[in-house]
Automatic annotation (TrEMBL), chain A:
SUPFAM superfamilies: 2Fe-2S ferredoxin-like (SSF54292). It comes from Flagellimonas pacifica. PANTHER family: FERREDOXIN-2, MITOCHONDRIAL, FERREDOXIN/ADRENODOXIN. It holds the Pfam family Fer2. It comes from the Bacteria. Residues 4-109 form the 2Fe-2S ferredoxin-type domain. This is Ferredoxin, 2Fe-2S.
Automatic annotation (TrEMBL), chain B:
It holds the Pfam family Pyr_redox_2. The keyword Oxidoreductase applies. GO terms for molecular function: ferredoxin-NADP+ reductase activity; flavin adenine dinucleotide binding; NADP binding. Residues 5-293 form the FAD/NAD(P)-binding domain. Homodimer. This is Ferredoxin--NADP reductase. It comes from Flagellimonas pacifica. Keywords: FAD, Flavoprotein, NADP, Oxidoreductase. It catalyses: 2 reduced [2Fe-2S]-[ferredoxin] + NADP(+) + H(+) = 2 oxidized [2Fe-2S]-[ferredoxin] + NADPH. Its EC number is 1.18.1.2.
Length: 110, 352
Protein backbone atom coordinates (compact mmCIF):
# COMPACT_ATOMS: atom_id res chain seq x y z
CA UNK A 1 0.00 0.00 0.00
CA UNK A 2 1.52 3.29 -1.01
CA UNK A 3 -0.25 6.62 -1.21
CA UNK A 4 0.66 9.96 -2.70
CA UNK A 5 -0.84 13.34 -1.81
CA UNK A 6 -2.74 15.25 -4.44
CA UNK A 7 -4.34 18.69 -4.27
CA UNK A 8 -7.58 18.94 -6.22
CA UNK A 9 -9.59 22.13 -6.59
CA UNK A 10 -13.18 21.21 -7.37
CA UNK A 11 -15.55 23.02 -9.72
CA UNK A 12 -16.75 25.26 -6.88
CA UNK A 13 -13.18 26.36 -6.17
CA UNK A 14 -12.85 24.32 -2.98
CA UNK A 15 -9.40 22.81 -2.41
CA UNK A 16 -9.18 19.19 -1.32
CA UNK A 17 -5.98 17.43 -0.31
CA UNK A 18 -6.45 13.73 -0.83
CA UNK A 19 -4.48 10.51 -0.63
CA UNK A 20 -4.29 8.61 -3.88
CA UNK A 21 -3.12 5.00 -4.00
CA UNK A 22 -0.48 4.19 -6.59
CA UNK A 23 -0.94 0.44 -6.40
CA UNK A 24 -4.56 0.14 -7.48
CA UNK A 25 -4.25 0.97 -11.17
CA UNK A 26 -6.16 4.21 -10.61
CA UNK A 27 -6.20 7.34 -12.70
CA UNK A 28 -6.90 10.90 -11.61
CA UNK A 29 -10.51 10.81 -12.82
CA UNK A 30 -11.14 7.76 -10.64
CA UNK A 31 -9.50 9.43 -7.65
CA UNK A 32 -11.85 12.41 -8.07
CA UNK A 33 -14.81 10.06 -8.28
CA UNK A 34 -13.75 7.96 -5.32
CA UNK A 35 -13.72 11.08 -3.13
CA UNK A 36 -16.91 12.33 -4.83
CA UNK A 37 -15.36 15.71 -5.59
CA UNK A 38 -17.67 16.08 -8.59
CA UNK A 39 -21.22 14.67 -8.78
CA UNK A 40 -21.60 11.24 -10.35
CA UNK A 41 -22.74 11.58 -13.93
CA UNK A 42 -20.74 14.77 -14.46
CA UNK A 43 -17.27 13.21 -14.54
CA UNK A 44 -15.86 10.14 -16.20
CA UNK A 45 -18.93 9.78 -18.37
CA UNK A 46 -17.23 7.66 -21.04
CA UNK A 47 -15.64 5.53 -18.36
CA UNK A 48 -12.06 6.57 -19.03
CA UNK A 49 -11.68 6.02 -22.77
CA UNK A 50 -10.60 9.60 -23.57
CA UNK A 51 -13.88 9.87 -25.45
CA UNK A 52 -15.50 12.67 -23.55
CA UNK A 53 -13.94 15.63 -21.79
CA UNK A 54 -15.88 15.41 -18.55
CA UNK A 55 -12.70 14.76 -16.53
CA UNK A 56 -10.76 17.66 -18.02
CA UNK A 57 -8.52 19.36 -15.46
CA UNK A 58 -5.86 22.04 -15.40
CA UNK A 59 -2.47 20.97 -14.11
CA UNK A 60 -1.19 23.67 -11.73
CA UNK A 61 2.07 22.15 -10.50
CA UNK A 62 5.29 21.60 -12.44
CA UNK A 63 5.12 17.80 -12.46
CA UNK A 64 6.43 15.96 -15.46
CA UNK A 65 3.37 14.17 -16.80
CA UNK A 66 3.35 11.43 -19.40
CA UNK A 67 2.82 12.74 -22.92
CA UNK A 68 -0.69 12.94 -24.28
CA UNK A 69 -1.81 10.05 -26.45
CA UNK A 70 -3.31 10.80 -29.86
CA UNK A 71 -6.76 10.09 -28.45
CA UNK A 72 -6.28 12.55 -25.61
CA UNK A 73 -4.89 15.22 -27.96
CA UNK A 74 -7.81 14.78 -30.30
CA UNK A 75 -10.40 14.91 -27.53
CA UNK A 76 -8.89 18.06 -26.03
CA UNK A 77 -8.96 19.61 -29.50
CA UNK A 78 -12.75 19.30 -29.48
CA UNK A 79 -13.42 20.03 -25.82
CA UNK A 80 -14.50 23.36 -24.43
CA UNK A 81 -12.67 25.54 -21.84
CA UNK A 82 -9.34 24.08 -22.99
CA UNK A 83 -6.15 25.79 -21.75
CA UNK A 84 -2.50 25.03 -22.40
CA UNK A 85 -2.33 23.05 -19.15
CA UNK A 86 -5.49 21.03 -19.83
CA UNK A 87 -5.34 17.27 -19.45
CA UNK A 88 -7.89 14.48 -19.26
CA UNK A 89 -7.83 13.08 -15.73
CA UNK A 90 -8.58 9.58 -16.97
CA UNK A 91 -5.28 9.52 -18.84
CA UNK A 92 -3.15 10.41 -15.81
CA UNK A 93 -2.23 7.30 -13.89
CA UNK A 94 -1.27 7.56 -10.26
CA UNK A 95 2.43 6.97 -9.86
CA UNK A 96 4.90 7.82 -7.11
CA UNK A 97 6.47 10.70 -9.02
CA UNK A 98 3.10 12.51 -9.06
CA UNK A 99 3.28 13.07 -5.29
CA UNK A 100 2.22 16.65 -4.60
CA UNK A 101 0.38 17.07 -7.92
CA UNK A 102 -1.96 20.06 -8.00
CA UNK A 103 -4.91 20.14 -10.37
CA UNK A 104 -8.12 22.05 -10.85
CA UNK A 105 -11.23 20.52 -12.38
CA UNK A 106 -12.42 22.25 -15.55
CA UNK A 107 -16.01 23.55 -15.56
CA UNK A 108 -18.75 21.15 -16.51
CA UNK A 109 -19.89 21.48 -20.11
CA UNK A 110 -23.40 22.85 -20.45
CA UNK B 1 -50.38 4.67 -31.50
CA UNK B 2 -47.86 1.91 -30.87
CA UNK B 3 -49.08 -0.66 -28.34
CA UNK B 4 -46.81 -3.18 -26.63
CA UNK B 5 -46.34 -5.06 -23.38
CA UNK B 6 -43.02 -3.57 -22.30
CA UNK B 7 -41.93 -0.20 -23.63
CA UNK B 8 -38.16 -0.01 -23.33
CA UNK B 9 -36.55 3.41 -23.33
CA UNK B 10 -33.01 3.01 -24.57
CA UNK B 11 -31.78 0.47 -27.11
CA UNK B 12 -28.36 -0.20 -25.60
CA UNK B 13 -27.25 -3.71 -24.62
CA UNK B 14 -29.46 -3.81 -21.52
CA UNK B 15 -32.55 -2.65 -23.40
CA UNK B 16 -31.90 -5.13 -26.22
CA UNK B 17 -31.43 -8.08 -23.88
CA UNK B 18 -34.70 -7.17 -22.13
CA UNK B 19 -36.45 -8.10 -25.39
CA UNK B 20 -35.06 -11.62 -25.12
CA UNK B 21 -36.01 -12.19 -21.49
CA UNK B 22 -39.45 -10.69 -22.09
CA UNK B 23 -39.83 -12.86 -25.19
CA UNK B 24 -39.25 -16.02 -23.17
CA UNK B 25 -42.28 -14.91 -21.13
CA UNK B 26 -44.26 -14.24 -24.33
CA UNK B 27 -44.20 -10.50 -23.67
CA UNK B 28 -43.74 -8.14 -26.61
CA UNK B 29 -41.36 -5.19 -26.54
CA UNK B 30 -40.89 -1.91 -28.32
CA UNK B 31 -37.79 0.25 -27.95
CA UNK B 32 -37.31 4.03 -28.22
CA UNK B 33 -33.85 5.49 -28.71
CA UNK B 34 -32.65 9.01 -29.50
CA UNK B 35 -29.84 7.63 -31.63
CA UNK B 36 -30.58 6.56 -35.20
CA UNK B 37 -29.33 3.00 -34.64
CA UNK B 38 -29.67 0.43 -31.84
CA UNK B 39 -26.74 -0.35 -29.54
CA UNK B 40 -26.46 2.77 -27.41
CA UNK B 41 -22.94 3.76 -26.39
CA UNK B 42 -21.57 0.47 -27.73
CA UNK B 43 -22.62 1.39 -31.25
CA UNK B 44 -22.26 5.15 -31.05
CA UNK B 45 -19.12 5.76 -29.00
CA UNK B 46 -16.91 2.70 -29.06
CA UNK B 47 -18.06 0.07 -31.59
CA UNK B 48 -14.47 -0.92 -32.38
CA UNK B 49 -13.30 -1.24 -28.77
CA UNK B 50 -13.02 -4.62 -27.09
CA UNK B 51 -14.97 -5.64 -23.97
CA UNK B 52 -13.46 -8.39 -21.81
CA UNK B 53 -16.06 -8.94 -19.09
CA UNK B 54 -19.07 -10.30 -20.94
CA UNK B 55 -19.50 -13.80 -19.47
CA UNK B 56 -18.61 -16.42 -22.05
CA UNK B 57 -16.85 -13.94 -24.33
CA UNK B 58 -13.12 -13.68 -23.55
CA UNK B 59 -13.09 -10.70 -25.90
CA UNK B 60 -15.83 -9.10 -27.97
CA UNK B 61 -15.98 -5.81 -29.83
CA UNK B 62 -18.75 -3.54 -28.57
CA UNK B 63 -20.22 -3.38 -32.06
CA UNK B 64 -20.18 -7.18 -32.35
CA UNK B 65 -21.93 -7.51 -29.02
CA UNK B 66 -24.73 -5.31 -30.35
CA UNK B 67 -24.93 -7.36 -33.57
CA UNK B 68 -25.14 -10.55 -31.52
CA UNK B 69 -27.87 -9.16 -29.30
CA UNK B 70 -29.87 -8.05 -32.35
CA UNK B 71 -29.56 -11.57 -33.73
CA UNK B 72 -30.55 -13.10 -30.39
CA UNK B 73 -33.73 -11.02 -30.08
CA UNK B 74 -34.79 -11.24 -33.72
CA UNK B 75 -37.34 -14.05 -33.12
CA UNK B 76 -39.16 -11.78 -30.69
CA UNK B 77 -39.74 -9.11 -33.33
CA UNK B 78 -39.12 -5.99 -31.28
CA UNK B 79 -40.41 -2.69 -32.62
CA UNK B 80 -38.13 0.34 -32.77
CA UNK B 81 -38.71 4.07 -32.66
CA UNK B 82 -35.23 5.36 -33.46
CA UNK B 83 -33.91 8.89 -33.70
CA UNK B 84 -36.57 10.09 -31.28
CA UNK B 85 -36.32 10.96 -27.63
CA UNK B 86 -38.91 9.90 -25.06
CA UNK B 87 -40.25 13.20 -23.87
CA UNK B 88 -43.48 12.90 -21.87
CA UNK B 89 -45.20 10.22 -19.85
CA UNK B 90 -48.82 10.07 -18.76
CA UNK B 91 -50.66 7.48 -16.74
CA UNK B 92 -53.92 6.45 -18.35
CA UNK B 93 -57.12 5.42 -16.57
CA UNK B 94 -56.51 1.72 -17.17
CA UNK B 95 -53.19 2.02 -15.34
CA UNK B 96 -51.06 1.83 -18.48
CA UNK B 97 -48.61 4.50 -19.59
CA UNK B 98 -48.56 6.75 -22.62
CA UNK B 99 -45.09 7.87 -23.70
CA UNK B 100 -44.72 10.56 -26.36
CA UNK B 101 -41.46 11.31 -28.14
CA UNK B 102 -40.10 14.70 -29.19
CA UNK B 103 -41.50 14.00 -32.65
CA UNK B 104 -44.95 13.22 -31.31
CA UNK B 105 -44.88 9.42 -31.73
CA UNK B 106 -47.15 7.87 -29.10
CA UNK B 107 -46.51 4.57 -27.35
CA UNK B 108 -48.81 2.75 -24.95
CA UNK B 109 -47.74 -0.04 -22.57
CA UNK B 110 -48.57 -1.35 -19.11
CA UNK B 111 -44.86 -1.58 -18.28
CA UNK B 112 -42.08 0.92 -18.86
CA UNK B 113 -38.46 -0.20 -18.65
CA UNK B 114 -36.06 2.71 -18.63
CA UNK B 115 -32.74 1.41 -19.91
CA UNK B 116 -31.50 4.84 -20.79
CA UNK B 117 -27.83 4.46 -19.85
CA UNK B 118 -26.33 7.87 -19.34
CA UNK B 119 -29.29 9.52 -21.02
CA UNK B 120 -30.00 10.50 -24.56
CA UNK B 121 -27.12 11.65 -26.68
CA UNK B 122 -27.39 15.31 -27.58
CA UNK B 123 -25.02 17.27 -29.79
CA UNK B 124 -22.35 19.18 -27.89
CA UNK B 125 -22.92 22.85 -28.57
CA UNK B 126 -20.08 25.36 -28.73
CA UNK B 127 -20.32 28.32 -26.40
CA UNK B 128 -21.20 31.20 -28.71
CA UNK B 129 -23.42 34.10 -27.73
CA UNK B 130 -25.78 34.06 -30.69
CA UNK B 131 -25.90 30.31 -31.15
CA UNK B 132 -29.44 29.74 -29.86
CA UNK B 133 -30.78 32.76 -31.74
CA UNK B 134 -29.75 31.20 -35.06
CA UNK B 135 -30.81 27.62 -34.34
CA UNK B 136 -32.88 26.48 -37.34
CA UNK B 137 -32.06 29.86 -38.91
CA UNK B 138 -28.77 28.73 -40.31
CA UNK B 139 -27.38 26.77 -37.35
CA UNK B 140 -27.87 23.00 -37.16
CA UNK B 141 -26.10 20.32 -35.13
CA UNK B 142 -26.81 17.41 -37.39
CA UNK B 143 -27.47 17.05 -41.07
CA UNK B 144 -30.82 15.50 -41.79
CA UNK B 145 -31.55 16.73 -45.30
CA UNK B 146 -28.33 17.36 -47.24
CA UNK B 147 -30.38 19.02 -50.01
CA UNK B 148 -31.06 21.93 -47.67
CA UNK B 149 -27.45 22.94 -48.29
CA UNK B 150 -27.59 22.91 -52.09
CA UNK B 151 -25.83 25.99 -53.49
CA UNK B 152 -25.43 27.41 -49.98
CA UNK B 153 -22.29 28.67 -48.26
CA UNK B 154 -21.69 26.25 -45.42
CA UNK B 155 -19.22 26.38 -42.54
CA UNK B 156 -18.53 23.18 -40.64
CA UNK B 157 -16.61 23.18 -37.35
CA UNK B 158 -15.04 20.12 -35.77
CA UNK B 159 -12.20 17.69 -36.21
CA UNK B 160 -13.74 14.23 -36.07
CA UNK B 161 -15.19 11.80 -38.57
CA UNK B 162 -18.53 13.51 -38.95
CA UNK B 163 -16.92 16.91 -39.66
CA UNK B 164 -14.68 15.32 -42.27
CA UNK B 165 -17.34 13.15 -43.86
CA UNK B 166 -19.91 15.93 -44.15
CA UNK B 167 -17.34 18.36 -45.53
CA UNK B 168 -16.56 15.81 -48.23
CA UNK B 169 -20.21 15.15 -48.96
CA UNK B 170 -21.26 18.80 -49.02
CA UNK B 171 -18.32 19.77 -51.24
CA UNK B 172 -20.45 18.47 -54.13
CA UNK B 173 -23.70 19.98 -52.90
CA UNK B 174 -22.99 23.36 -51.38
CA UNK B 175 -21.59 26.29 -53.33
CA UNK B 176 -18.87 26.78 -50.70
CA UNK B 177 -17.66 24.56 -47.87
CA UNK B 178 -15.40 25.89 -45.14
CA UNK B 179 -14.01 23.53 -42.51
CA UNK B 180 -12.72 25.07 -39.29
CA UNK B 181 -10.85 23.08 -36.66
CA UNK B 182 -8.92 24.11 -33.62
CA UNK B 183 -5.91 22.03 -34.63
CA UNK B 184 -4.14 21.12 -37.83
CA UNK B 185 -4.61 17.43 -37.14
CA UNK B 186 -7.91 15.65 -37.65
CA UNK B 187 -9.15 12.51 -35.96
CA UNK B 188 -10.83 10.37 -38.53
CA UNK B 189 -10.54 7.49 -40.90
CA UNK B 190 -7.39 7.80 -43.02
CA UNK B 191 -9.48 7.79 -46.21
CA UNK B 192 -11.52 10.76 -45.06
CA UNK B 193 -8.48 12.77 -44.02
CA UNK B 194 -6.84 12.15 -47.40
CA UNK B 195 -10.02 12.98 -49.28
CA UNK B 196 -10.34 16.32 -47.45
CA UNK B 197 -6.70 17.06 -48.28
CA UNK B 198 -7.43 16.33 -51.93
CA UNK B 199 -10.56 18.52 -51.99
CA UNK B 200 -8.63 21.28 -50.28
CA UNK B 201 -5.92 21.09 -52.94
CA UNK B 202 -8.62 21.26 -55.62
CA UNK B 203 -10.06 24.34 -53.95
CA UNK B 204 -13.36 22.59 -53.20
CA UNK B 205 -12.99 22.85 -49.42
CA UNK B 206 -11.78 25.99 -47.75
CA UNK B 207 -9.80 24.70 -44.76
CA UNK B 208 -9.03 27.06 -41.87
CA UNK B 209 -6.82 25.60 -39.13
CA UNK B 210 -5.88 26.05 -36.38
CA UNK B 211 -8.85 28.27 -35.78
CA UNK B 212 -12.16 28.62 -34.00
CA UNK B 213 -15.46 30.27 -34.63
CA UNK B 214 -15.79 33.20 -32.25
CA UNK B 215 -18.90 35.04 -33.38
CA UNK B 216 -22.10 34.58 -35.36
CA UNK B 217 -23.78 37.58 -36.96
CA UNK B 218 -26.93 38.25 -38.93
CA UNK B 219 -30.41 39.66 -38.78
CA UNK B 220 -33.34 37.28 -39.05
CA UNK B 221 -30.99 34.52 -40.07
CA UNK B 222 -27.31 33.74 -39.95
CA UNK B 223 -25.31 35.81 -42.43
CA UNK B 224 -21.76 36.04 -41.23
CA UNK B 225 -19.25 34.14 -39.09
CA UNK B 226 -16.06 35.47 -37.54
CA UNK B 227 -13.28 32.89 -37.35
CA UNK B 228 -10.09 33.51 -35.38
CA UNK B 229 -6.85 31.77 -36.22
CA UNK B 230 -5.48 30.47 -32.94
CA UNK B 231 -1.82 30.69 -34.00
CA UNK B 232 -1.66 34.38 -35.00
CA UNK B 233 -5.04 35.71 -33.74
CA UNK B 234 -5.93 36.87 -37.24
CA UNK B 235 -9.70 37.32 -37.60
CA UNK B 236 -11.47 36.24 -40.76
CA UNK B 237 -14.98 37.36 -41.71
CA UNK B 238 -16.91 34.85 -43.77
CA UNK B 239 -20.27 35.28 -45.46
CA UNK B 240 -22.18 32.07 -44.80
CA UNK B 241 -25.70 30.71 -44.96
CA UNK B 242 -25.20 27.76 -42.66
CA UNK B 243 -23.11 26.85 -39.64
CA UNK B 244 -22.86 23.20 -38.63
CA UNK B 245 -20.83 22.63 -35.45
CA UNK B 246 -20.00 18.92 -35.20
CA UNK B 247 -18.39 18.42 -31.80
CA UNK B 248 -19.74 14.97 -31.08
CA UNK B 249 -22.47 13.95 -28.70
CA UNK B 250 -22.77 14.03 -24.96
CA UNK B 251 -25.36 12.19 -22.90
CA UNK B 252 -28.03 14.00 -20.92
CA UNK B 253 -30.60 12.38 -18.66
CA UNK B 254 -32.97 14.92 -20.20
CA UNK B 255 -36.76 14.84 -19.93
CA UNK B 256 -36.77 11.59 -17.93
CA UNK B 257 -35.56 13.59 -14.95
CA UNK B 258 -38.93 15.38 -14.91
CA UNK B 259 -41.05 12.22 -14.81
CA UNK B 260 -41.41 12.25 -11.04
CA UNK B 261 -38.87 9.50 -10.53
CA UNK B 262 -36.58 9.56 -7.54
CA UNK B 263 -33.17 10.67 -8.81
CA UNK B 264 -29.86 10.34 -7.00
CA UNK B 265 -26.41 11.04 -8.44
CA UNK B 266 -27.85 11.62 -11.92
CA UNK B 267 -29.36 8.14 -11.85
CA UNK B 268 -32.80 6.68 -11.06
CA UNK B 269 -33.24 5.03 -7.66
CA UNK B 270 -34.65 1.52 -7.80
CA UNK B 271 -35.49 -1.34 -5.48
CA UNK B 272 -32.55 -3.68 -5.84
CA UNK B 273 -33.85 -6.12 -3.25
CA UNK B 274 -36.52 -7.26 -5.67
CA UNK B 275 -37.14 -6.14 -9.20
CA UNK B 276 -35.46 -2.80 -10.03
CA UNK B 277 -38.77 -0.98 -9.90
CA UNK B 278 -38.70 2.80 -9.43
CA UNK B 279 -40.83 4.78 -6.99
CA UNK B 280 -43.59 4.68 -9.64
CA UNK B 281 -45.13 1.20 -9.82
CA UNK B 282 -44.94 -0.18 -13.35
CA UNK B 283 -41.87 1.86 -14.23
CA UNK B 284 -38.58 0.03 -13.91
CA UNK B 285 -35.04 1.30 -14.45
CA UNK B 286 -32.28 -1.09 -15.48
CA UNK B 287 -28.66 -0.86 -16.55
CA UNK B 288 -26.44 2.19 -16.20
CA UNK B 289 -29.38 4.54 -15.68
CA UNK B 290 -30.29 3.18 -12.23
CA UNK B 291 -28.65 3.36 -8.86
CA UNK B 292 -28.84 1.34 -5.63
CA UNK B 293 -26.40 0.47 -2.88
CA UNK B 294 -23.43 -1.28 -4.46
CA UNK B 295 -24.46 -0.47 -8.02
CA UNK B 296 -21.92 -1.23 -10.73
CA UNK B 297 -22.36 0.23 -14.18
CA UNK B 298 -21.48 -2.92 -16.10
CA UNK B 299 -23.23 -4.45 -19.08
CA UNK B 300 -23.34 -7.81 -17.36
CA UNK B 301 -25.16 -6.27 -14.38
CA UNK B 302 -27.65 -4.70 -16.78
CA UNK B 303 -28.41 -8.15 -18.21
CA UNK B 304 -29.14 -9.52 -14.76
CA UNK B 305 -31.33 -6.55 -13.87
CA UNK B 306 -33.27 -6.93 -17.14
CA UNK B 307 -33.93 -10.59 -16.38
CA UNK B 308 -35.35 -10.02 -12.91
CA UNK B 309 -37.29 -6.99 -14.09
CA UNK B 310 -39.08 -9.05 -16.76
CA UNK B 311 -40.26 -11.58 -14.17
CA UNK B 312 -41.75 -8.75 -12.12
CA UNK B 313 -43.33 -7.21 -15.21
CA UNK B 314 -44.96 -10.56 -16.03
CA UNK B 315 -46.51 -10.75 -12.57
CA UNK B 316 -47.82 -7.19 -12.91
CA UNK B 317 -49.42 -7.94 -16.27
CA UNK B 318 -50.74 -11.36 -15.25
CA UNK B 319 -51.27 -11.17 -11.48
CA UNK B 320 -53.20 -14.46 -11.45
CA UNK B 321 -50.82 -16.55 -13.50
CA UNK B 322 -48.16 -18.76 -12.02
CA UNK B 323 -44.92 -18.80 -13.89
CA UNK B 324 -42.20 -21.35 -13.49
CA UNK B 325 -38.85 -20.41 -14.93
CA UNK B 326 -37.75 -22.80 -17.61
CA UNK B 327 -34.22 -23.22 -18.91
CA UNK B 328 -33.86 -22.43 -22.62
CA UNK B 329 -31.98 -25.70 -22.95
CA UNK B 330 -35.11 -27.51 -21.78
CA UNK B 331 -37.86 -25.35 -23.21
CA UNK B 332 -36.14 -24.03 -26.31
CA UNK B 333 -36.90 -20.58 -27.69
CA UNK B 334 -40.15 -20.02 -29.53
CA UNK B 335 -40.18 -16.78 -31.46
CA UNK B 336 -43.20 -14.64 -32.26
CA UNK B 337 -42.20 -15.14 -35.87
CA UNK B 338 -43.01 -18.85 -35.61
CA UNK B 339 -39.37 -19.88 -35.37
CA UNK B 340 -38.39 -22.49 -32.83
CA UNK B 341 -34.96 -23.25 -31.52
CA UNK B 342 -34.46 -26.25 -29.29
CA UNK B 343 -31.90 -28.75 -28.21
CA UNK B 344 -31.72 -31.72 -30.62
CA UNK B 345 -33.77 -34.65 -29.35
CA UNK B 346 -31.96 -37.78 -28.42
CA UNK B 347 -32.96 -40.70 -30.61
CA UNK B 348 -34.17 -43.89 -29.04
CA UNK B 349 -33.49 -46.63 -31.52
CA UNK B 350 -32.03 -50.07 -31.13
CA UNK B 351 -28.88 -50.92 -32.95
CA UNK B 352 -29.18 -54.24 -34.61
Amino acid sequence: MSDIKIKITDRDGVLHEVDAPTDMNMNLMEVVRSYELAPEGTIGICGGMAMCASCQCYVKSEHQLPEKSDDEEAMLAEAFFVEDNSRLGCQIHMTDDLDGLEVQLAPEEA
Amino acid sequence: MIKTDILIIGAGPTGLFTVFEAGLLQLKCHLIDALPQPGGQCAEIYPKKPIYDIPGFPEVLAGELVDNLMEQIKPFQPGFTLGERAERIEKLEDGSFLVTTNKGTKHNAPIIAIAGGLGSFEPRKPMLDNLFKFEDKGVAYMIKEPEVYRDKKVLIAGGGDSALDWSIFLADVASEVTLVHRRNEFRGALDSVEKVQQLKNQGKINLITPAEVIDLQGGEKLEKIIVRKTDNSEEIDLDVDNFIPLFGLSPKLGPISDWGLEIEKNAIKVDNTLDYQTNIPGIYAIGDVNTYPGKLKLILCGFHEATLMCQSAYQRIFPDKKYVMKYTTVGGVTGFDGSKKEAPKAVVKSIE
